[in-house]
UniProtKB/TrEMBL annotation:
GO terms for molecular function: flavin adenine dinucleotide binding; UDP-galactopyranose mutase activity. This is UDP-galactopyranose mutase. It is an enzyme of class 5 (isomerase). Residues 150-349 form the UDP-galactopyranose mutase C-terminal domain. The gene is glf. Pfam families: GLF, NAD_binding_8.
Amino acid sequence: MKTYDYLIVGSGLFGSVFAHEAKNAGKRCLVIDRRKHAGGNLYCENIDGINVHEYGAHIFHTDNREVWQYVNSLVEFNRYTNSPIANYRGKLYNLPFNMNTFYQLWGVHTPAEAEEKLAEQRAEYANIECPANFEEQALKLCGHDIYETLIKGYTEKQWGRPARELPAEIIKRVPVRLTFDNNYFNDPYQGIPTGGYNRLIDALLSGVEVRLDTDYFANRAELDGLANVTVFTGMIDKYFDYRCGRLEYRSLRFDTKRLDTPNFQGNAVVNYTSADVPYTRVIEHKHFEYGTQPTTVVTYEYPDTWNEDKEPYYPINDKRNNAVANEYKRMAEAQGNVLFGGRLGQYAYFDMDDTIAEALRLFRQNIM
Ligand code: FDA
């Protein structure tokens, strides 16, 4: 008899939810992770009592009531509402695009005035019938002012390419809100776990055996031999030895500073939307949890090209990569006793709520 029912590769949100469910169903699980900590990209480092989102800002939001009830049954959530600010050449604007933004851009006071201004802005580009690239598409959707001030520079930094060289399909709509509402998300449920994300991961992995600093690929045959089923949440192309080619990602570089001031920017998230500032965002972590510490910690976020030595943050879901990923997914389906999940195992961008829903779905479908 094998020692475990499940070997779960990766202690990120996907692996942790799967392990939690399996343990509650009486299954024997071993979770491994190559990092020195559990939690994957949700992990927070504690500096001066502030939970620093080590792998980028994480804000929980969902319209899925089951997922919201699930996480609330594990930890308490605060009332944090994401309302980012954009800084364009020293001037501040509210996001998402709403009546506050339109007042700041054009001095308009009413929805009717804003609609008139938006129509006037769009009319300038009405002659673009089939947008050939991102820039044309964005101009057609929202006109010059919003595009130049709040979209162009930020997007070019994110993708590392001029907007005219990016495909039009990246931007399908530019949502505008004709109310004075700075809540970035439309979802009914939103917040940050009280005490930070590590508490959520601890609750999920409570009672589960976890081995850190353990890379699956360093000892693959032996690890597979321990369990009846492997749940793999690492890179799917690496699992198959890159047989169909390598998948590409976009990476990020974080520059984190501890500052001797209680409040640096007055908001958790400030986006820098002009191309001449090299970073895209500055995160002041304490504001996610209404921190009152005498010091603060800020992180400058720089988009980065990806290579094997860097974290693969965002899949690049273009035609080539999707075709390669589909090959791997076909190969994955043919594996009898290996299940693939999570953002790397499925080569997809999943928000945290989607990740939980997917892990619950995979578990329920495959419970032995
Ligand atoms: P994740 O990458 O977290 O975990 C995979 C784990 O597997 C890692 O711990 C890794 O070390 C381990 N692993 C990989 N290969 C291994 C190997 N060979 N051997 C052993 N272990 C291995 N979502 C949201 O809802 N709100 C938000 O605000 C954000 N913000 C955000 C910011 C940034 C910068 C990113 C990149 C993503 C977000 N997200 C988000 C998405 C969120 O991060 C995502 O939903 C979850 O982290 C996905 O969890 P996974 O378990 O799939 O991956």
